Amino acid sequence: MSAIYDTVSQYIPFLRKKTSVSRDQALHARPMRNPLVQWSREADGDVHLRIPRRADRVAKILCKVFRAPEYKEIVLDEVGSGVWELCDGDRTVESIVSATSKKYKLTRRECETSVAAYLKMLGDRRLIGFQLGGRRKK
Question: Cα–Cα distances in Å, from 103 out to 14, 78, 83, 97, 121?
Fold first, then answer.
């Protein structure tokens, strides 16, 4: 029965089992930027992200019909830009929280909550990924 469930859940997303990560594992995860996302820091200090559109056949047809642009652009504010630049794959979430709390003079607890929510949002949008476990291989 388990083999059938695993096979079916590959094709039906809402049937997939949710993986749970402990707080300690989450703090030691290393966020990395998606290599497909182009980004640049502008003169005003904000980071501009350029996200390419899908390249499959359906997306190409829809983009021709609706004249969609090649890229979607997102502008991050000062705090978001700072966190984005720290997501290099070498730093852990814990070190990003520490750096952000020092820079903006926030308590550890409130900074951890807001940075975790922001990183979760970036992860849900597939702008970053998380490496769990050991050191990053170079």
Answer: 40, 11, 11, 10, 22
Domain residue ranges of the chain, discontinuous segments joined by +: 20-131
- Cα-based distances in Å from 45 to 28, 48, 80, 135: 28, 10, 11, 30
20's tokens: 């749970």
Give yes or no for a contact between 28 and 22, defined as CB atoms under 8 angstroms apart: no
78-132 pLDDT tens trace? 999 999 999 999 999 999 999 999 999 999 999 999 999 999 999 999 999 999 8
Query: Residues near 74 by Cβ (< 8 Å), separated by ≥ 6?
Result: 48, 49, 51
Q: How far apart are CA 71 and CA 136, in angstroms?
A: 30
CATH topology (fold) of 20-131:
Outer Surface Protein A; domain 3 (3.90.930)
Determine the Cα–Cα distance for residues 88 and 73; give it in Å rounded to an integer. Answer: 20
Alpha carbons 90 and 58: distance in angstroms, whole number: 37
The pTM (predicted TM-score) of the whole model is 0.78
